[in-house]
Amino acid sequence: MDSKVRVRFAPSPTGGLHLGGVRTVLFNYLFAKHHGGEFILRIEDTDQTRFVAGAEQYILDTLNWCGLTPDESPLHGGAYGPYRQSERKAIYTQYAQTLIEKGFAYYAFDTPEDLEEKRKQVPNFQYSRAHRMEMKNSISLAENEVSELLKKNTPHVIRIKIPDEEEVVFTDIIRGEVRFDVSTVDDKVLLKADGMPTYHLAVVVDDYLMKITHAFRGEEWLPSAPVHILLWKYLFGLDKMPKWAHLPLILKPEGSGKLSKRDGERLGFPVFAMDWSDPITKETTVGFKEKGFLPEAFINFLAMLGWNDGTDKEIFTIEELIAAFDLERVHKGGAKFDYEKAKWFNQEWIKKTDNKILAELLQPFFDQANIEIHERSYLIKVIGLVKDRCHLLTDFITQSSFFFAAPKSIDTAAILPKWEEKKQAFFTALSNSLKEMKGKPLAAELETHFKTLAATHEIKPGDLLLPLRIMLVGGKFGPGVFDIIESIELPDTIARIVHSLQLLSEK
RNA sequence: GGAGCGUUCGACUAAGGGUUAGGUCACCUCCCUUUCACGGAGGUAAUACGGGUUCGAAUCCCGUACGCUCUACCA
Question: What is the ipTM of this complex?
Fold first, then answer.
């Protein structure tokens, strides 16, 4: 690289950040850090009608949770601010003006109603060479008419004048050479009637001013790339233009099409990185964080959606991702989102994460479930016992709640079919004998005791183990029975057996 | 309709002219485990179609089909 790599992520603050957005951030971040460059967050809030309060903070929080902190942003500052486009309004006006002066853009006075009408009349209406002269603009109108309209402050926009014939060619890092015959694109609005720029003007102006060297965005932007390239040519010169890469889309798990918030709701998985509550509708959309994902797993999973390092390695730390990342190995085709695989990544990361750290991360989940943790060290021990069977952090609640309080319900229906007098007698004897034991016996000790007692009652231990488990945890799940007894200790164990025995006798 | 992009097991993907087309998730079987997992060993399963080029094509070329994205004073 001849100059320092600078990349940017430029979201509109209109709601929660979804998977595709986070992956775009991730690829930007990985690329920047791989090359020792900078990652910039720019807020594209030029559409006041879609602006949502709190969305910007949410984006910052999300990036923070993911560990993808920008080097420059509205929050962090930087030498190329302001980083909110709404605060850069005057800058865009100036460039739009330049384009008009050079004849690459023109004023258009058509009202939204005019356009709607025209679109109704003409089947595939394009505001372009074919119909430009039929519209109300500074090309079709006489010069004095135009200056009159401008003087009277008639609402107007500024449109780019797409050349009649020109082939725009550029090299996309992922896709290679891409060609467009410009005659099929229309005269996009550059500056809106309210004086705000559209995306088209704003990206190129800001990418230039912020010295962006590489511009990555979703594949949905590919069709408008010729407009941006023309603008670069007119305004700053193609030699200054960043290298482009259009990232493949993240698709619905079944069927086809871009993954949307709705798909998550329909299929029961998160699509946003973190919980998002719409300030107006008050509707909350669940996020990966609250669903129980580790940020490392979330990032790891996203990285593997459309990229791999060419080996069989799948579990990567962020440092490993930075070291291995190479845009040219990014896939061209879209990737379907697979929630099962996402959970697998999370499980792998849970296994990898130290129990002490897990205890800290788990605390809020236990708090929310109203489970009181008296001793952190006890929590850590329990985590070690159950972590192998947890895909999500929320699984720890169901997998371990019985370590902290007696189960709310006992699945007696699972015991009853094979329940008999002599088992009743055994468990009575067991609870009595446990009362005799002192201190905190270890699992192995307890197991020996249990088996000896079973033998004297002439019952196979296997016939007794499942009922015991259900008495202790409420159902057919959880770690080894004797590990559980060792942890919850004698008094609780006895209480649970006695309680269950009573339930069973009532049936 | 137009333009652009894409297409390897159900899913994510590897293989960049020569492999029995490999790995992971999911699914199935077995082992371990007197629960559920974890772990271990196996299994099912793919180059969209048709033409070329070539001794040889998943790979290069052309066409077809299908899919997707865009086609707003939204990004």
Answer: 0.95
